[in-house]
Design goal:
Layout (H helix, E strand, L loop, with lengths): L6 E9 L3 E5 L5 E4 L13 E8 L5 E4 L11 E9 L3 E5 L6 E4 L16 E8 L4 E4 L15 E9 L3 E6 L4 E5 L12 E10 L2 E5 L3 H20 L1 E2 L7 H5 L6 H13 L3 E3 L4 E3 L7
Parallel strand pairs: 3-5, 13-15
Antiparallel strand pairs: 1-2, 1-4, 2-3, 4-5, 6-7, 6-9, 7-8, 9-10, 11-12, 11-14, 12-13, 14-15, 16-18, 17-18
Helix pairs in contact: 1-3
C-alpha cells in the first residue's frame, strides 16, 4: 500500500507533456519532469518516489530523496522563519517542511534561527508538517564520560533541556547543570557526565562546577542512607578520606553548595539533612 509522507516504489503508467503518471493502489499519481532528477522514464519502469501533497493539496511525487519521512527522523536545518506560521526546514526535496508555531515556544526569542538544526519527523500526511522529537535512548553509539560533544536543543522544560547530537543521540541536561536560556535548534557543546538505562546526561557548566555537583550528590546519598555524617567543614583531609574519595577543598565546596541550597545543616560535629534533628 502506498504511504503518503514516505518513499514508495511505483510503476510508470505513461508519459505526459510535463511529466509522468504513476500507478498506485490509491490512484494515479503525478510525477513532474522537474522531480525526476533529469531521468528519462518509460512505461512499466519501477521508480522510488516520495509522496506528499503540494501547495494546492494535490497528491504528487518526487524522485528526490527526503531527509525525513513519517518513519524516519532526522536533524534538519532551518531555512526561513515566519512569525505567523512557524519555521521552515530543508528536507532535501523541492518543498520545505513546516514546523508549526503551535509546536514552538510562546516566547519567540526561544524560536530557532536560520542555520539552526531541529530533530523532527513528518507527522501530518495531508501536508508536509514536522514534529520535534527527542533523540535515541536505546543506544549503540557510546560516548566517553567527560567528553564534549556538539548537540542541538530540541526541548526546553522545567526540569532541564533535551539535546540531540549529530548521531541522533539524546542527552538530558538538568536545570542545575546550565545557566541562562537556550533556543530550540541552538547548537551547543555539552560534556557527557552520566550514562544509565535512561540514556546520557550532560553538563554545560565549567568542569569545576560539575565536580561540585557530583560531590554534593555523593554526600546527599550518604546522608539518605545513614541519616548523619560525622564530618563538617572543619574536618581534616584525613577524616574526610575515611568516608569519601575527595579532597578537603572539594568536600568543603560541595558542602557549602548543599548548605546554601538549604539541603543540609550542621551541629558541632555532624552534618545532616534539613528536617533531621542533629542527624537523629
Amino acid at each position: 500500500m502506498a504511504i503518503i509522507g514516505d518513499n514508495n516504489k511505483l510503476k510508470v503508467l505513461r508519459k505526459t507533456d510535463i511529466g509522468y503518471m504513476l500507478d498506485s493502489d490509491i490512484g494515479e499519481i503525478f510525477l513532474h519532469n522537474n522531480e525526476t532528477m533529469h531521468t528519462e522514464l518509460k512505461a512499466d519502469d519501477m521508480v522510488t518516489v516520495f509522496l506528499y501533497f503540494d501547495q494546492k493539496k494535490r497528491l504528487t511525487a518526487t524522485m528526490y530523496t527526503p531527509l525525513v519521512t513519517v518513519n524516519n527522523a532526522n536533524l534538519l536545518e532551518v531555512v526561513s522563519v515566519n512569525i505567523n506560521l512557524g519555521v521552515f526546514l530543508n528536507m532535501g526535496i523541492n518543498k520545505d517542511l513546516l514546523l508549526s508555531l503551535d509546536d514552538l515556544p510562546y516566547n519567540k526569542n526561544l524560536w530557532p534561527r536560520v542555520g539552526d538544526k531541529i530533530f523532527v519527523i513528518v507527522v501530518d500526511k495531508n501536508r508536509l508538517v514536522a514534529k520535534v522529537i527527542e533523540g535515541n535512548k536505546d543506544l549503540e553509539i557510546k560516548y566517553e564520560l567527560g567528553k564534549d560533544v556538539d548537540a542541538y536543543v530540541v526541548k526546553v522544560g522545567n526540569a532541564g533541556i533535551n539535546l540531540v547530537t549529530e548521531d541522533h543521540v539524546n542527552i538530558f541536561v538538568h536545570n542545575t547543570m546550565y545557566r541562562g536560556n537556550f533556543r530550540i535548534g541552538e547548537k551547543i557543546s555539552v560534556r557527557i557526565t552520566h550514562f544509565s538505562d535512561k540514556g546520557y546526561s550532560g553538563s554545560l557548566l565549567p568542569q569545576k562546577e560539575t565536580l561540585r555537583f557530583d560531590d554534593a550528590d555523593i554526600i546527599v546519598n550518604y546522608l539518605k542512607e545513614n541519616q548523619t555524617l560525622p564530618l563538617t567543614s572543619k574536618s581534616t583531609a584525613d577524616e574526610i578520606t575515611k568516608y569519601f574519595e575527595m579532597s578537603r577543598k572539594a568536600f568543603k565546596r560541595a558542602l557549602g553548595h548543599l548548605y546554601k541550597e538549604g539541603i543540609v545543616n550542621f551541629s558541632e560535629t555532624n552534618t545532616f539533612l534539613v528536617g533531621e534533628k542533629n542527624g537523629k
